[in-house]
Design goal:
Number of domains: 1
Strand order of the largest sheet: 1-2
Number of helices: 13
Oligomer: single chain
Distance between the termini: 34 Å
Helix content: 55-70%
Length: about 325
């Protein structure tokens, strides 16, 4: 099988190069009373960043991307909106499945990242005939965390740098897989959501399957809540989820406090607009689009791929 290796050299830097580029002059002024050392460091980081990004871009030109509409019968612009009653039925099915298959174990993040990347790489390769090898490095901090307080992780698509801003519990394998999809060149959020889910549910690993199913359930509940945190809490508490999972669902995306709330509102709107400008449907692609994509795929008669058995909720008609 053909293999493409994207170096992602920037991801091996001790700190994010983008953070150095942004913060070096300010830190230099605060600590040394002069900006020149910071400017020198900033230029060095900028050179390393540009070199790494160019090398990665060059290698990505040889990547064969998945044609989502052909392979799955759906894509960002073509999916059947899931009816509300179907969504409520899906919630009932998923609650029963994650309760019955509950896996309490955890893995260290670096080990989990390598496992997730292996399954994601192999899943994509089975469709494209090409293994896309990338870094498995994951940071715990980037300055983007300050700008996007509503996010749980981020990926710099130029450098491949990825950060998870906090412990995401049962959702962590899916969050990592989502960001690794970006690293492999799938920049649209719905595509990253879908590929992460399909790779994890086809893995056969109970911990990874659990994470993907919980992500799908979480997104269904967010759609049904209409974005209302209190309504979401009520839906989780009344869903019948076992207590260990319910606590993680409620802790996964806490609402920003009084200081970060206005920042989150402004940046969420800006991010939604940026997604629309890049041919996506906006922030709704994370949940409404993602779950409707899977609903369409699993009921499709035109898709070339078969839904993973472990992840299928709807039998094809």
């Amino acid at each position: 099988m053909e293999e493409i290796r994207i170096p992602n050299q920037a991801t091996y830097s001790p700190v994010s190069l983008t953070d150095v580029i942004v913060a070096a002059p300010l830190v230099s002024r605060l600590l040394l009373g002069a900006t020149l050392p910071g400017r020198v460091l900033q230029l060095a980081a900028l050179g390393a960043y540009a070199g790494s990004a160019l090398q990665d871009w060059t290698r990505r030109q040889g990547v064969r991307k998945i044609d989502f509409l052909r392979e799955f019968g759906a894509d960002v612009r073509n999916f059947e909106p899931m009816p509300e009653e179907a969504r409520r039925q899906e919630v009932r099915v998923l609650v029963e499945r994650v309760n019955d298959g509950y896996v309490p174990g955890r893995m260290r993040r670096n080990e989990l990242a390598r496992l997730v990347d292996w399954h994601l790489t192999e899943y994509i390769a089975r469709i494209t005939g090409q293994r896309v090898r990338t870094s498995t490095e994951v940071r715990s901090f980037m300055l983007m965390q300050v700008l996007f307080p509503f996010a749980v992780g981020a990926c710099d698509v130029l450098s491949g740098d990825i950060a998870l801003f906090r412990d995401t519990g049962v959702f962590e394998p899916h969050v990592i897989a989502h960001e690794f999809c970006h690293r492999k060149g799938y920049l649209k959020e719905l595509e990253a959501q879908a590929l992460a889910y399909l790779a994890l549910t086809s893995s056969g690993d109970p911990l990874l399957v659990q994470s993907a199913l919980c992500e799908r359930l979480h997104r269904d509940l967010r759609v049904l809540s209409g974005g209302d945190p209190e309504r979401f809490r009520v839906l989780v508490e009344r869903s019948g989820l076992r207590a260990e999972l319910a606590r993680q669902f409620l802790a996964f995306r806490p609402e920003p406090g009084p200081l970060m709330g206005p920042v989150a509102t402004v940046m969420r709107s800006a991010y939604d607009a940026r997604m629309r400008l890049t041919g996506q449907n906006g922030i709704s692609d994370y949940d409404l689009g993602f779950t409707s994509f899977l609903y369409t795929f699993e009921r499709s008669t035109r898709a070339r791929q078969a839904p993973p058995v472990a992840g299928t909720v709807w039998a094809r008609s």
